[in-house]
Amino acid sequence: MCATWPIPNSLQSSDSIQEGGPKVNALSGRLVPPNTSDFILLKEDHTLGNLLSEHLKQAPHVLMAGYKVGHPNVPEVMIRLQTDGTVTPREVLIDTCKQLIAAYGQLGREFTREYELRRMVAAGEQENGGKP
Hints:
Elements: E1 2-4, E2 24-27, E3 36-42, H1 46-58, E4 62-68, E5 76-83, H2 89-127
Antiparallel strand pairs: 1-2, 2-3, 3-5, 4-5
């Protein structure tokens, strides 16, 4: 049995499988230990699988996190996540995604700021004939 839920717009990819379709599928009804869930990330590969897996392992209440890509030509990543039972795997996955989005948003802002500063310095040097 496969249960799906909609992902907030901020977590959706611009190239989702179908317009309005889910980006993440939660698998249930499988022979997995309690407090364990499998998530299928559609149209993703090792890049996101490894990033999420490593950050999930650092989250409190997580006992195990791992990922696999079934075949290189199939853009799907399966993430298995087991918690200690105080929070659900779904909650941990969503919290970790939100933390990563915030961290990479901050990195993007810092990069843009530094780029703009260097561009202004270069323009000033150009106006002064190459003298700082």
